[in-house]
Amino acid sequence: MLVEAGARFHQADLSSVADTRRVIAEIGREVDAVDALLLFANRLSPRRRETAEGLEHTFALYYLSRYLLSVELGPCSTRAPIRSSSASPASGPPPGRSTGTTSS
């Protein structure tokens, strides 16, 4: 259904600034306007991990890539209203820690 509506899928390693910029350039070459941007990531790490570019992995994946996509796809989004949706893992207290709620 999405393909019939003209949707396109672009795979990229969004923890990599270089690959994020590659996919931004690819999208810019293919379309005049971006109608919707759907971003999905499902990765949590119990320890600090750096990307090949020296950035903290979670920061690069969940924040920096979204910033770059928003800013650098900006010219495409000004030609049409853009709807953006980001999905990431749910966060909560670490295992064994209370949420602070009590039951009667």
Structure description:
The chain is an alpha+beta fold and 104 residues long. It has a domain of 71 residues. It is 33% helix and 10% strand. The chain is built from three helices and two strands. 12% of the residues are buried. InterPro entries: NAD(P)-bd_dom_sf.
Largest sheet, if any?
Answer: 2 strands, parallel
Distance between the termini: 48 Å
Q: Residue-averaged pLDDT, rounded? A: 75
**What's the tally of helices?**
3
Strand arrangement, major sheet: 1-2
Cα-atom Rg, whole angstroms? 17 Å
How many strand units? 2
The arrangement of helices and strands along the chain is HEHHE
What spatial form do the alpha-carbon principal axes imply? Answer: elongated
Uncertain spans = 90-94
Helix content: 25-40%
Structural class, by secondary structure, is alpha+beta
As a percent range, the share of strand residues is 5-15%
InterPro entries: NAD(P)-bd_dom_sf
Give the topology.
Elements (H helix, E strand, L loop, with lengths): L16 H14 L5 E5 L16 H16 L1 H4 L5 E5 L17
Parallel strand pairs: 1-2
Helix pairs in contact: 1-2
InterPro entries: NAD(P)-bd_dom_sf
Tell me briefly what this model is.
The chain has three helices and two strands; from the N terminus they run αβααβ.
Task: Supply database-style keywords.
104 residues; alpha+beta; two-stranded parallel ribbon; 3 helices
